[in-house]
Write a structure and sequence with these properties.
alpha/beta; two-stranded antiparallel ribbon; 7 helices
């Protein structure tokens, strides 16, 4: 199961620590550069199946989400398969996944399930997330569990902002795998970790946060994390697709490019992105219904670099 832990842990923590050391010598800088060069950014393909073709994206809303919050995420999903959105578009961001073997992964919004009564309580385990995901149809689908701001999930904020994994359509005979993902609303639990750069980070340089493009720090943060796990799901659905590092803690299509949203990004700085002059909101992708989103860089297998929209 993949994780978004890298947003605030291993890579970012190390680089932020180095960046805050007083007066680093040129020798130190050269040594660090040499270390980076020894580890090129290449996601190895491990010969497993990828999720390609027409895929149905089913959403299970767990807990309370307002209609406006749901529409932000629904519009994002629909933006990934919209050919008529002006550039830079969410659809063109998603098209990078086509460069991973076997062609396009076309996402179409499917079933939406509302669980506003917290059927399993307000503290969920990983296995309960899988159980919730199994409630939606399994055939050619990705089932996404979205948890509300007052729902605690194992590892949420402590080590991850979202995950993706797989389960069996028939657990008794372990036949037929299906893919699922989970993302939580971090606004009240850890916005500095899982809604950055729309909130000041919990550590590192305290640069002013960006203005969320849909005026909802938590849900705009969820879009970033949803984009991350969806890219990981189609390119490494069952743990033997594209990734770098150990299979138990892989760097995937987007987590390999942690913290990069625009050109010139560095630890603590999201990069040069676009700004709405009227609202001051930052974004790098246009979506359907006039939406705007801030989407993370994705590793491009043709260039072996982290590709940004702007």
């Amino acid at each position: 199961m993949a994780s978004l832990y890298y947003l605030t842990t291993i890579l970012t923590s190390l680089l932020l620590l180095l960046s805050t050391l007083p007066n680093p010598s040129s020798a130190t800088s050269r040594k660090l550069a040499a270390l980076v060069k020894q580890q090129p950014l290449v996601l190895k393909y491990h010969n497993g199946p990828l999720l390609k073709g027409n895929l149905t994206l089913n959403l299970l809303w767990y807990g309370h989400f307002s209609p406006s919050q749901r529409s932000i995420i629904v519009d994002f999903v629909q933006s990934l398969n919209s050919p008529n959105t002006p550039p830079p578009s969410a659809g063109s961001w998603w098209q990078t996944t086509e460069k991973y073997k076997a062609g396009a992964s076309t996402l179409v919004l499917g079933t939406q399930i509302l669980d506003e009564n917290y059927s399993l309580g307000k503290s969920l385990t990983t296995s309960q997330i899988s159980d919730l995901a199994s409630k939606a149809p399994h055939v050619n689908s990705i089932n996404v569990v979205l948890t509300a701001a007052d729902v605690a999930v194992d590892g949420f904020c402590m080590s991850r902002c979202g995950t993706h994994g797989s389960g069996f359509s028939n657990p008794k005979d372990k036949q037929g795998k299906f893919a699922y993902a989970w993302v939580g609303n971090p606004v009240s639990q850890c916005p500095g970790q899982c809604a950055w750069p729309f909130h000041q980070p919990i550590f590192g340089p305290q640069t002013p946060p960006l203005v969320a493009p849909n005026a909802d720090v938590g849900v705009d943060g969820m879009v970033i994390n949803l984009a991350t796990v969806l890219a990981g799901t189609v390119t490494n659905p069952f743990g033997d697709g594209y990734f770098q590092g150990p299979a138990t803690a892989p760097l995937e299509a987007v987590t390999a490019c942690t913290g990069i949203f625009g050109s010139g990004a560095y630890p603590g700085y999201a990069g040069s992105v676009l700004m709405d002059k009227a609202t001051g909101a930052s974004y790098n992708a246009n979506g359907v219904n006039g939406r705007r989103y801030l989407l993370p860089a994705m590793w491009d297998p043709q260039t072996s670099t982290c590709k940004t929209l702007v």
